[in-house]
Amino acid sequence: MRWNHPHAIGRRATLGSWFIAFALGAIGLGFFRLQVMGRDRYLFQSDQNRIRPSILPAPRGLIVDRHGSILADNVPGYTISLIGSSRDSLTSTMGLIADLIGLDVGQVAAILDRPRARIDDPVVIMRDASFEVVSALEERRVALQGLTIQAEPKRHYPHGDIFAHSLGYVNEITQQELEGGSVAGARYGTVVGRSGLEREYDSLLRGSDGRRHVEVDAFGRTVRQEGVLAPSPPVQGKTVRTTLDLDLQSFVQSQFPAEARGAVVAMDPRNGDVLAMYSAPSFDPNAFVGGIDVGLWDQIRNSADNPLLNRAVQGRYPPASPWKLAVATMALRRGIVTMDTRMTTPCHGGMPYFTRYFRCWRTEGHGSLTLAEAIQHSCDVYFYQLGLKIGLQNLLEDGTQLGFSGLTGVDLPNEVQSFFPATTSYYDQTYGPRGWTRAVTLNLAIGQGENDQTLLNMIRFYAALANDDGVAPTPRFVLSEPVEYRPASGLRLDPTQIDELREALVMVVEQGTAVRSRIANLRIAGKTGTAQNSHGPNHGWFIAFAPAEAPEIVVGAIVEFAEHGSDVAPIVTNVIARHLFGADETLDRSIRLLVPADSAPQPLPLADSVLIGG
Hints:
By secondary structure, this protein is an alpha+beta fold. The protein has helices at residues 6-37, 39-50, 87-101, 105-112, 131-139, 164-167, 175-180, 196-200, 202-205, 246-255, 294-301, 324-333, 371-377, 380-390, 392-401, 425-431, 440-445, 455-466, 495-510, 565-581, and strands at residues 51-56, 63-64, 70-82, 123-126, 147-156, 170-172, 191-193, 210-216, 222-224, 240-241, 262-267, 274-280, 350-353, 356-359, 525-531, 539-546, 553-559.
C-alpha cells in the first residue's frame, strides 16, 4: 500500500492524534500531581527554601534575695547572625563583617565552624553586640547577604562581683555537652549556668524558647522579618528566691580587707539559710555573658589568686583553734572531762612528748586551767593532753561522725569534701606502718596535722553548738527548696553541756583572744584560730554566733595571711551587729593583714603536721 494512499494518510492522522492526546494527558496528569496532589508537599518545600526559622531565646528566670531585691535579671541585647546557602557565601559576607567589627582570621574561622543543627541554620556571629556595632551593620545591610540582627534577653548581674561565687555565671553550651546530653532540653546556642546557683538551678531558670520566621530570597538575603508566620513567644524561666540578704552581703564585702584572699559566710543556725557568702578575690560575672574576652580569660585563668575559686566551699584550710571545740565535744560526750577538769601538766609554754617538744602559742604559758578556761585562752598544752586522753582512734572516729570528713550538702555545685582521716590506716598508707607515731594525736587535737576543713563545714559545726538540740540543718541558698533534713547524729551532748560550751565561747570574746571585738550589750560566743601556713604568714580564723543565749546568726571568716585569728574577729562581729541591729551599730575597725612582699600568693596546701594555737 502506498503511503500516500488516502487510507494510509487517515491512519497516520489517527495515530498522531492519539499520540498527541496521550502526551497532553500525561502532561495534564503531571500538572495535576504537582499542583493538586503534591500541592502541600511542594508548598512546604518551597516554604522551607523561602522561610527560615529563628529561635527566640527565653529570658532566664530572675534570681532575687530573701526580700525580693533583684540579684540577677535580664536586659535587652543584640545577637548578630548570618543566614547563608553555602559556606562560600557565608565566608564572603563574613569578610565584610569582619572588617566592620574587628574580627581576625582565627575568629572568623571559629565562627564559621560553630556547630549547627542544620546547614541552613543561622550562624551566630556575635552575642551581646553593642549599639555601635549594630548601627554600623544596619547602615550596610543591603550589601550583607543573610544578615539578621535580633533583640535577645541578656543576663545581667546588677551588683557585679559581690555575689559572683554564690550566683555564678552563664555561657553558651558547648558541642561536647550537647553530644553528651548532659543538659536536658538544650540546643545549639542555648545559654546555660556555669557555676553557682545559675548552674545548680539551671533547669528552673532556663525557661522555654520561642520561634519566629524570616523570609529570604534565592540568594539567602533576608527580605522580610515580620509577619511571615505567627511567632510562638518564649516563656521566661522561673524566679528563684534565695536566702541571701543583699544588704548583709554588700556589708560583708565592704568589711573584707582589700587585696586579701579568703571568705566569709553568715548563716541562720535555726534553718540553714545562708544569709551571705563572700569569697575574695572575686570576679565580675557580667564579663562572661555573651562570651568572655580572650585576654581577660587568660588573665583570670592564670592569676595566682584564682578568683574563680569559691573559698567558702572549695578552699580547704587547717581549722586551727576553732577545731578545739570539736575536741571538747568529743571529750564531754565520752565522759572523759567536765568543764571544770584540769590537766595533770600545767601549761608552761609547751609540753614534752617522747623526743619532741610541743609548744603552746603563748611562750610564757597559761598555768593550770579548767576546760572552760582552756577554751577561753586557747591553750594548746591543755588540748594536747585532752587529745591523748581521748585517744587517736576515738578522735578519728568521733571527728568522722561529726561530719569533718564529708560534705555539708549545700545546694551549690562543686563543693569540696573536707579532709579528715577516718582510721589509722590512712597513716599506714601515707607514711608506711612505721613512718608515723602517736604524736599525730597532738597535732589533730589543736586543729593541725592531717585535717583540712572548708569554712562552710566549720560553720555547720558551730551552728550545731548554737542550737539547743546540738544538731544543725543542711545549709541552703533557695527558700523554696525543702531542707528540714537534719543529720542522724549531732553533738550528742545534753543541753547543760551545750550551754557550758557556749559560756566558754562567750568568755573568748569577753575576756579571751577575741576581746578586741566585743560589742556592748551583745553576748557573742566565738573562737579565734591561727592556722600554720607553710607558704607564708599564718591564716586567721574566727567563727561566732549571737545572741549567745538564743543564737540567730552564725558567722565565720577565714583570711589568708592574716597572721592572727584575733585580727579577723572584727569582720565577724561587725557582720553579726549589722544583721541584728542594722547599719548604725557596727564597729569602725580594720584588720591587720600581713602578705609576704617578696612572694606571690601560693595555692592552698594540704595541712602540714605543725603546731600553732590561738
